[in-house]
Design brief:
alpha/beta, Rossmann fold, five-stranded mixed β-sheet, two-stranded parallel sheet, 15% strand, transferase, methyltransferase, SAM-dependent_MTases_sf
């Protein structure tokens, strides 16, 4: 995306505004489908929640407002954002534009845990199709759902419990794959019998650079999300989330 943006802007006069660049790009390519992931900062629960009043939301709002002006608007849109977007005025504005331009929508708040992936990261998703295109289950149009039923086959009974009452939600973790299936290399597979193998010994010694001092664990252990190769979940993690309790993820092998 950055390479594309650099290539696009290199062909445009430096004094052009971002809005002008958007108009040129959208009208020139006439894409059938748009995948949009606008800045999440205006909608995060830890932020100021200024929504469309936040300057970082302006580019997405501008894109939405261009749709009614397009001779060849997209036929499908896929929008992703953080939990919190669903209560924003930006979302209300978005749905209003979709309604006026003959789009049908379905909205979801879903987490990888609901699809058997041991990673807790709930996100807002909006699917939009321009009529006469339609969804397979039109009864879900215009709804905000927090279950993945429409995306799962009926035989996936172990995952379908997310469609049941909340007391069954915990059982869905049983269907998740263990973290070890997603690790580049499982230390637990390096057993004592391999000690004579120089390559395996080097692999074990190389892990030292990832070790966390006990003093750090003693001080901040309660704020860490300590997981194991057999764990069926872990929290969302990124640089700034280390400021919040439960978002320092440590993988413990021993």
């Amino acid at each position: 995306m950055r390479k594309y943006w650099k290539h696009l802007t290199s062909m445009i006069e430096p004094m052009m505004s971002t809005s002008t660049i958007l108009v040129i790009g959208l009208f020139r390519h006439a894409a059938d489908a748009w995948l949009l992931s606008p800045p999440c900062q205006p909608y995060t629960r830890q932020g100021l929640q200024k929504h469309s009043a936040d300057a970082r939301a302006s580019s997405f709002v501008k894109i939405l407002e261009l749709i009614p002006q397009m001779q060849l608007p997209p036929k499908m849109l896929f929008i992703e954002n953080v939990v919190g977007f669903e209560v924003s005025d930006t979302r209300k504005h978005m749905l209003g534009i979709f309604a006026r331009t003959c789009f049908v929508t379905q909205e979801y708040i879903l987490s990888p845990l609901q699809f058997g992936i041991p990673y807790s990261r709930p996100r807002y998703f909006c699917l939009a199709k321009k009529k006469p295109l339609c969804f397979m289950d039109a009864s879900l149009n215009g709804q905000l759902l927090q279950r993945p039923c429409p995306f799962l086959k009926l035989e996936d009974s172990t995952l379908m419990d997310e469609c049941l009452p909340e007391d069954a939600a915990e059982e869905s973790l049983l269907s998740c794959q263990p973290l070890r299936n997603f690790l580049e290399r499982s230390v637990s597979e390096i057993d004592y019998e391999d000690a004579c193998d120089d390559k395996k010994v080097k692999e074990r010694s190389d892990l030292g650079k990832f070790s966390v001092p006990h003093s750090l664990i003693d001080r901040w252990g309660k704020a860490m999300d300590i997981v194991y190769p057999d764990s069926k979940r872990c929290c969302c993690f990124k640089k700034l989330l280390s400021l919040y309790q439960g978002h320092w993820i440590l993988a413990c092998y021993f």
